[in-house]
Amino acid sequence: MNPSRHDLIRALQAFLPDEAILADEEALRPYECDGLSAFKQLPLLVAMPETVAQVQQVMRICHQFQVPVVARGAGTGLSAGALPHSGGVLLSLAKFNRILDIDVQACTARVQPGVRNLAISQAVVPYGLFYAPDPSSQVACSIGGNVAENSGGVHCLKYGLTVHNVLKLEVITAEGELLTIGSDALDSPGYDLLALIHGSEGMLGIVVEVTVKLLPLPEAVRVLLVAFDSVEKAGQAVGDIIAAGIVPAGLEMMDNPAIRAAEDFAHAGYPTDAAAILLCEIDGGLDEVASQVARVRGVLMQSDATEVRLAVEESDRQKLWKGRKSAFPAIGRLSPDYYCMDGTIPRKALPQVLHQISELSKEFNLPVANVFHAGDGNLHPLILYDAGKPGELHRAEQLGGRILELCVKVGGTITGEHGVGVEKLDQMCVQFAPLELAQFHAIKAAFDPEGLLNPGKAVPELHRCAELGAMHVHQGQLAHPELERF
Amino acid sequence: MNPSRHDLIRALQAFLPDEAILADEEALRPYECDGLSAFKQLPLLVAMPETVAQVQQVMRICHQFQVPVVARGAGTGLSAGALPHSGGVLLSLAKFNRILDIDVQACTARVQPGVRNLAISQAVVPYGLFYAPDPSSQVACSIGGNVAENSGGVHCLKYGLTVHNVLKLEVITAEGELLTIGSDALDSPGYDLLALIHGSEGMLGIVVEVTVKLLPLPEAVRVLLVAFDSVEKAGQAVGDIIAAGIVPAGLEMMDNPAIRAAEDFAHAGYPTDAAAILLCEIDGGLDEVASQVARVRGVLMQSDATEVRLAVEESDRQKLWKGRKSAFPAIGRLSPDYYCMDGTIPRKALPQVLHQISELSKEFNLPVANVFHAGDGNLHPLILYDAGKPGELHRAEQLGGRILELCVKVGGTITGEHGVGVEKLDQMCVQFAPLELAQFHAIKAAFDPEGLLNPGKAVPELHRCAELGAMHVHQGQLAHPELERF
């Protein structure tokens, strides 16, 4: 044990009980990675504070020792955003797992950051309320992590991302100060720090309390399953539904490989010969839902769908969703390994991009299954590969990079809801011009001038992009950084 | 003319035509104030560039001369955010008035910042689309100003504020660099600069292009007029409608002084004996609207309303809205002067706050009329006074300050949509703790380290708050800054 580590532990022991400081390699092991296990690193030590005052003290000590701090919620992140720093403290917020207050009249709940996403909705069911954003990992993921990644989910088409469902945050700065950001009212004066913290991947502060908005549970929910004989037709139907002024609660798409894998696994009753299916969920008042379902059917009449099936009974609806929700593990059974991508595109580019992904799949000789939030244009191509075969992992990563660059080329972005973390640092060089990255670094410095919060994540250093020689793509035009318009 | 002003004009003349530089006092006069004429100041000169390159050059020259720059759209702002700087350039974006592109398939429009808010909706009517945020000043105000203030309007209850309806911005920095912020897709990686620019009151950059989201025009629109014999009952009904899971397109409230003034002016058919009325607009598909109207009626059955009237015909609907839209000028006829406040409160506090405002009105012996976005909890108390009577203006300002402090006390904020500008600098000391203000200054420095963009607006210097001895209110508790928990 080097002396600084020893001193750091001594300083933390002054206010943390022994069991809240993990330092043995065996105890550190479970924290070496998050949901993206391709990246692994043991932290210097793990601190598990239990009170806001303790978090403030941890931050003050780390600031004094100039030791990096990486915050971790449930560790379900998919871009290695919670990958530990070898010389830093891994700050686990697992003990911040209490719902502090439910205000039924205001439709809000004050919760600690370690509370699981689904636990919020479960706690407010008795009041006829729910918390809308529902990432696939909602059983496990924490609301603090949702804020860090600005998570979406099936229902964010209608109800928005995490940022649209949070009113207020309590945040600890790199120096251990407590900031209240946002308010209990609709809007706040001053710069929009609330939005800035959302999706900032633990780089600007440590969230220690979240006030979320709650919504009344809809009176009725219906799901339509719609099948198509081509992926492009399904993509077109998505645009048509939205263009008709209908906002479904969710509008998901699966292509044939995903349909077959999910059906085999979950027996959801999917048509396994379809090239693509859409799952379109409509919620609201009983009459309103009936009327909207009729309108969606009307749009689909024009769309060359091969089958339209309506689930009215709750059990039928659950069965249809079960297939969608188990698609990832189901595809996992088809192939020794898979790599889940996350890019967002303008909705109108769906047919074109899905076609080009299938071309890229052939070029790289790796199957790609698509299961995604079609209404938002948020793609999740799953690249199937076998890490045991020499070169396949590398080829999968290359294919993934090409898919993300394709997203940027059509005016989209390299991430929808999984964040940048470590995984997509290189693609950030494609997405942004040097000046835009420099502006991100300036924002970072405004919160954390010494760079102690989650260093090395989310925003690449400018020299990394320069060394990569990355092509920055702007408005569909490729351009070398040195040829930028600046 | 002092030499530096002379040099500055010469430098601008190198690339701006003579008619794009205003320097005579007579020519400067129209720019001395915005919509809040209590604050007046002539600028050093006015520059009216016509191209993005010219804006970049103006900014580079001003940066070189270290001259402040205040951007101005249509000048309809109500918090003196566009008040000129005596030693600075007033940068008018009036010539940026072109709609550059309408993408019907993607439901977006690329527009220049000087385009009027209503002009966007008018341009896209042929495609069955509209731009949702609709401030009262929508005939005159510009989309660039809407971004600067993060404007709302009657329909932002359902469709969100400006920030929720903008996808992408082109922004010129204080040093004259061009940044692309946001993308054509739903979400972008990196820190949320798009939200940060919204509501930043021209302090972080100059917006030179805005990509807005367009929505399909609803098939049907209905308005309910609901009358009550007490303001508190009307406030309660607002909460009940929202709690029932109904999201009206707009939910506006007027109290008796406002009703009588508007009726006298616009002959909208309002019940002039009502203590308060609500205007509840429902839009969507035909059946859906019918169903929602029925549900609202159901809620109102329990609410002790004295009258519920449905406008189905477009002309009846327009008549009801005409009263609401002309309420401000109508009240202007009642009194030589009025002062329009803008605070936001949690919706559940409506009955209590409306009652306390009427108590304050008695205490200060000044009538207050209320016309506001009740669904959002966004209050607009209009304080009636006579500037000709000694002390009345001062009393009106004091009353206004007390009302805003009341908003903060119940967990609300000192502005909903009018911004802070110069008007509410002191109330910012009430809303925020010193550390929170310091964080705003750090953000400002990350964009504009030399403080050249709209100096002296929106975020007060810490010494101003200290000198003011302002009471910072946190979570309903008053606290002296020196007793803060930091």
Give an overview of the whole structure.
- The structure is a homodimer of 486-residue chains.
- Chain A is an alpha+beta fold and 486 residues long.
- Chain A has 4 domains: 3-92, Uridine Diphospho-n-acetylenolpyruvylglucosamine Reductase, domain 2 (2-Layer Sandwich); 99-216, Uridine Diphospho-n-acetylenolpyruvylglucosamine Reductase, domain 3 (2-Layer Sandwich); 220-328, Alpha-Beta Plaits (2-Layer Sandwich), CATH 3.30.70; 425-483, no CATH class.
- Helix content of chain A is 36%, strand content 20%.
- Chain A is built from 17 helices and 22 strands.
- The first copy, chain A, has helices at residues 3-13, 25-28, 52-65, 117-124, 143-149, 156-159, 193-197, 231-243, 256-266, 286-301, 314-325, 327-334, 350-364, 392-409, 425-431, 434-447, 462-468; strands at residues 21-22, 45-47, 69-72, 89-92, 99-103, 108-111, 129-130, 166-172, 178-182, 206-213, 215-216, 220-228, 250-255, 276-284, 307-311, 337-340, 343-344, 368-372, 378-379, 381-385, 472-474, 477-479.
- In chain A, the strands form 6 sheets. A 7-stranded antiparallel beta sheet of chain A has the order 15-12-14-13-18-20-16, sandwiched between helices. Chain A has a 5-stranded antiparallel beta sheet with strand order 5-6-10-8-9.
- In chain A, helix 9 crosses helix 12 (327-334), helix 13 (350-364) runs antiparallel to helix 14 and helix 15 packs across helix 17.
- Chain A is globular and about 70 Å long.
- The termini of chain A are far apart.
- At the A-B interface, strand 9, helix 7, strand 11, helix 8 and helix 10 of A face strand 9, helix 7, strand 11, helix 8 and helix 10 of B.
